[in-house]
Amino acid sequence: GTEFMQCAVESVPLPDGCLDAVVCMYAFHEMPEDARCAAAAEMFRLLKPGGLVVLTDSVQLGDRPQWDPTLGAFGAFNEPHYKNFIACDFGALFKDAGFRCGTKVMASASKTLSFVKPQAGFNSSFEGDAAAAGVSGAAALYAADLN
Questions:
Q1: Predicted model pTM
Q2: Are the beta carbons of 53 and 47 closer than 8 angstroms?
């Protein structure tokens, strides 16, 4: 069955390798940089090999270049971690945690990224991450730039 849980994403009270997927919605822009790193590592710990992370949050610098000059202004609205968030390299963050990059899809001011925990014994390299994660077609085009 499906179980929903509300807790700090960087410290989830579940055993290692117990989840098939983790969905995180609009949380990372609320977190300081160290908590984002801890959250990615925790997601990796929680997932079974082949498990999927789906992360949706605000667009970042470079996603919509015409917005870059004013994108950081949202941080003035009681969003203390936003300016750091918009410059965060999520591809590198999740790769450093052990994930393979999956897809990037943008809609208006939001984007959704996916990351896959590799199967046991699979050698990681940035090039080919999307194909190795089972991503094909247009989705693979985004795998090299998940910012």
A1: 0.80
A2: yes
Q: Is 78 exposed, middle or buried (0-12, 13-18, 19+ CB in 10 A)?
A: exposed
Structure confidence by residue, pLDDT tens digits, 33-81: 999 999 999 999 999 999 999 999 999 999 999 999 999 998 888 899 9
Q: How far apart are CA 102 and CA 9, in angstroms?
A: 20
* Token output for 20: 């098939």
Q: What whole-number distance in Å separates Cα of residue 64 and Cα of residue 2?
A: 35
CA separation for the pair 15, 47 (Å, rounded): 10
CA distances from 40 to 23, 64, 65, 113, 142 (A): 12, 24, 26, 13, 20
Question: What are the pLDDT digits (tens) for 110-138?
Answer: 999 999 999 976 655 444 444 444 443 33
DSSP 127: T
- Which one, of 11, 95, 35, 24, lies nearest residue 58 by Cα? 24
Q: Is the dihedral of CA 9, 17, 129, 37 positive or negative?
A: positive
